[in-house]
Amino acid sequence: MKKILFSIFAVCTLQLSAQKTIYIFNNTQYNLHNALMGADQTNSNCYPSLFGVSNTPVPSGGAVSYTGYYNNSPNPSIPTWSVTLAVNNVTNIPTNSPVLTPLGMATDWMMNKFFLSDPNGATIPYNNETIGTIGCGLPIITEIHPTSSIPYPFNAYWFIVGGQTYFNIEDQ
Fold first, then answer.
1. How big is the CA angle at 62 (ends 25 and 112), to the nearest 5 degrees?
2. Distance of alpha carbon 112 from alpha carbon 83, whole angstroms
């Protein structure tokens, strides 16, 4: 009985300490390009923080998810993470480095700096934006909608359910 209880406790503990997943849904007619940031938002300076730019756009109608920063595949969509441990202490770490695993346990997804590109090469005005917690200690931006002064071609949503982060973007 002790072994069963210990096993349940160990599984629950590992699940609670592991970095959460971010799910990204592109419901626009465009390609979605993401630059993701994760950080320890429980302290006043948000260190450590990690920033990675995806080389692979999410196509129209597509979805992608990231569970942590570590990825041992031969062609990861985010090949390198810029890791900030303190002021003036920034290191670029490849995605396949095991150093990223403990950093994933100490951080959670913070924001997405994104832009859209037309698959046919046409220019898209007002398509660069940031959603989530865009600065340490700042309020979270959960929605972006077009206005008369900034006529975005999209509506975007950032929300957290059950400890998992979701980013959804859709045509206006």
1. 40
2. 16
**Local confidence band at 1 (pLDDT 50, 70, 90 cut-offs):** very low
* Residue given tokens 């429980």 in the structure block: 42
Counted residue by residue, the chain has a size of: 172
96 vs 19: which has the higher pLDDT: 96
- How many Cα atoms occupy the beta-carbon half-sphere of 118 within 13 Å? 8
Tell me if 58 sits within 8 A of 31, measured CB to CB.
yes
140 burial type by CB count under 10 A (0-12 exposed, 13-18 middle, 19+ buried): middle
Bridge partners, residue 160, by sequence: 165
H helix or E strand, kind and range, residue 24 = strand 21-27
Min mean pLDDT across 3-12, 113-122, 163-172 is at: 3-12
- Distance (Å, rounded) from C-alpha 63 to C-alpha 137? 29
User: How buried is 44 (Cβ within 10 angstroms: 0-12 exposed, 13-18 middle, 19+ buried)?
Assistant: exposed
